[in-house]
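In response to the reviewer comment on reproducibility (Comment 2.3), we provide here a single inverse folding case reported in full, input and output, so that an independent group could reproduce the run without further information from us. The structure tokens appear first.
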């Protein structure tokens, strides 16, 4: 049995289970196509059935698991699903940067600059967590709580596809493109930010098509 999760001061047990399962799925430590029971997952993450069930509900909202009577299914990789997700990410991210620039505060600028200051030092795993924080910070800049929820709902499967196929050069390209978006928002240059979003999503769509053959 794996070590039990200990309750963190600033996170509920459900949040901890969610984050641990998300990492296991995104980094394919649980292989796509696997079917598990709640009991097996509880043993795997070292937590009780109630937080596991709640975490699975959250993951199902993000399409990272499918919950049915036969068990908990980890979805297979799907290029067509990725392309659909990227269409949604493009629209939401454009809305996010537009509203962020309209409503940017000095505290927002500080948070964005802190992200830019550390991104080049992140390894591949740390970059995933940087991306999750980037989504949260940028959505907070937009002053629209629903933007963050929508971004979170589409990012998990996209991240899994990326980390399954991405090489070192891909990670460097990804960092560069994400940085361009934040830099444009900091400059409060809406046109440049939209161009940067399109550049990132064009790159990700091409990446998906290449690895879906």
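Designed residues, in position order:
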């Amino acid at each position: 049995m794996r070590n039990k999760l200990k309750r963190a001061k600033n996170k509920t047990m459900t949040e901890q289970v969610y984050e641990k399962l998300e990492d296991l799925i995104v980094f394919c430590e649980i292989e796509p196509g696997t079917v598990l029971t709640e009991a097996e997952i509880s043993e795997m993450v070292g937590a009780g059935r109630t937080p596991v069930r709640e975490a699975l509900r959250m993951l199902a909202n993000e399409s990272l698991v499918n919950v049915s009577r036969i068990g908990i299914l980890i979805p297979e990789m799907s290029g067509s699903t990725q392309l659909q997700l990227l269409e949604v990410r493009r629209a939401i991210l454009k809305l996010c940067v537009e509203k962020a620039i309209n409503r940017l505060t000095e505290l927002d600028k500080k948070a964005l600059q802190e992200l830019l200051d550390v991104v080049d030092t992140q390894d591949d795993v740390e970059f995933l967590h940087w991306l999750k924080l980037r989504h949260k910070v940028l959505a907070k800049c937009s002053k629209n709580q629903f933007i963050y929820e929508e971004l979170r709902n589409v990012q998990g499967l996209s991240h899994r596809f990326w980390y399954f196929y991405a090489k070192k050069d891909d990670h460097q390209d990804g960092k560069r493109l994400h940085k361009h978006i934040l830099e444009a928002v900091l400059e409060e240059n809406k046109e440049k930010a939209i161009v940067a979003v399109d550049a990132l999503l064009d790159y990700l769509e091409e990446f998906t098509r290449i690895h879906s053959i």
